[in-house]
Structures are given as structure tokens and as C-alpha cells.
Amino acid sequence: MTRLSEVDRHRALGLLQAGLPISEVSLRMNVNRTTIFRLRQRLNKTDTVSDRPRSGRPRCTTQRQDRNLVRNHVNDRFLSASASSGQIRGRNNQRISANTVRRRLSTSGLRARRPYIGPILTQRHRHQRKLTLWAQEHAAWDRIQWRSVVFSDESRFCIDHADGRVRVWRRSGERYPVDCVREHDRWGRASLMMWGAISYNDRIGPVFFHNRRAINAQTYVQDVLQAHVVPYTAMYGNIVFQQDNARAHTARYTQQFLEQSNVQVLQWPALSPDLNPIEHLWDYLQRRLDCQDHQPQNAEDLENSLGRPWNAIPRHFLQTLVSSMGRRCAAALEAQGGHTHY
């Protein structure tokens, strides 16, 4: 027997008022005759046929257990819902499901999101980011001082890479069909290393390295510093050069060359890519590369595909990146030298 909706209840009452017997109405509505009899009784007693308020199914967890769930996931942000469901029992010592845990966490404002992937920061690294560089020396720099800095970095680009931003529209059970799978080579096929530098109003480079081996100090000095950085600083003067702490940058050979060339170098804390504005430029270039109609097939095509957007970077974009240094310093101080949203 089907349960009568509110519309069908009024229809059944209308048939009764038309003079049909209860047995005939029950046959037409496909319900038991007792249902029609009680429906008429409820109308006579309460003047309504709507359902009365019900308490609903009792929750399988108490409020105290809900607080414990939330506390466990706040203390361990990477604790899975399935693991948490096995640690806590509900009312009457009953098991709770992972979906119940997700609903309780969602009610408290916790959602499962992809974590930010950052470098491993030890206490020494956090101390350097917070005190040695930013708090004591550069937190009070104004925009004019930051405009005299040239920010540099290297980044590796591959012909094929796994972009975590890509989404696929599919139905349930359509995870593995060919048109729903994004194939890529784990090793990225051909790749190259790209060096570049930016200032408030200009860009330097790019320099491409097709050799898969790491850049050594001699190559870095000859192809980057001597060919690009030194001429730029000699032309404009009063320039501060920024580089990270890669081995080729901190080598004695490199340091001696910079000192002999009178290039002023900005001290930089280890493992601090979030404080370097040029990192956003690599993401910008990768997006432009992904939007091309014809994807590069070899290292030479990849070099051309990166060189064109590099030379076409809008000046206002460079100015926006460099102008963010004050906010980056403030974010590093607020995070006590930890990870920032940059």
C-alpha cells in the first residue's frame, strides 16, 4: 500500500463528501479502508489532514561526542573521516559511519580541501624568515626601496605535466572511460630549465638550459650573471640583485664574481619561494602555455612557447608583483616565519 500525499488526502475526502463509501474510496486510492476511516476521523477532530510534527530519527551521536569529533580533527587536520569514525562510538556504543563524521564536521565549518604544498620549514628556517631578514631589516622598506630590487629565479618546464587545476565533468561510475581520463607522461617528456628576473618596470632574460643536469656555478656565472645581470646593473646602477640559496648561487666562485663585479646582493632566507614575487610569474607562464592551441612537441618548441609570453608580460603585472613585497613581509611576520598565503 502506498502512503497518501496531502493532495490525495483531500481527494479522498472529496470522494467521501460525494457520497462514495469508504470501501470504494480505498479501492480507488489503493490504500487500506482503515486509512480512509482514520483520515475522516482526523479531519473531524483536528480540522486538518496535514502530518503532525514528529521528532525525527534520533541522532546517533551526542553533542559531547560531536565536540570530540571536531576537536580531534582540529588537532590533526589530516585525520580522515573513516579513521575518525572507528575511534568514536555513538549513542549506546553503536558504530558511526564516515558520512556521519563528515556531516558533523561540515556543520562546524570544517570542509575537506586540497592542502597547500609547501617546503619543509624547520625552526631555524622560520627564525630566519621572521627575524633575520624581514623583521629586522626589510619589514620597514617602502615601495621606492623595493623598486630597486631585481628578483630572479629558475623554474623547470615540461612538455607534459599534471595540472591539479584541471577538472572533468562526468557521471557516477565514469572515472575510467577514455574521454574522462587525462593522460600524461610521469616523466614529463622533454623539459628545460628557464632563468628569468624581473624588476618594477622591466624584465631580464630569459635564459634557457636544455641540459637536464643541475646548473653549476660556472654556467650560472657565464650564461646568467655575466651576460645579463652585470650589464643591467651597470646600465641602471643602484640595483639590488635577489637570488635564492641554490648551490650554484651560493658557491664561492659565484660569490667572488658578484663581489668583483660590484653587484649588491639581497640576503635571502632559505626555503622562501612564497616571498619571491617572480614565483607567480612562473604560474602565469604555465597557464599561457596550457592555453595554446598547439602544444609544443620538443624542447625547441617549448622554448619558443615560453619566450613569447615572457616578452609580452604586461608592465602593470610586474609592478603589481613587486608592490606586493610589503604585504609579503607583513604576512611572514604574522605567520611567525611560517607559510603564508603567497
From TrEMBL:
Domain Transposase Tc1-like: 66-138
Domain Tc1-like transposase DDE: 149-301
SUPFAM superfamilies named among the record's database cross-references: Homeodomain-like
InterPro entries, per the entry: Homeodomain-like_sf (IPR009057), RNaseH_sf (IPR036397), Tc1-like_DDE_dom (IPR038717), Transpos_IS630-like (IPR047655), Transposase_5 (IPR052338), Transposase_Tc1-like (IPR002492)
Gene Ontology terms for molecular function: DNA binding
Superkingdom assignment: Eukaryota
GO BP, one annotated term: DNA transposition
UniProt protein name: Transposable element Tcb2 transposase
Native organism: Elysia marginata
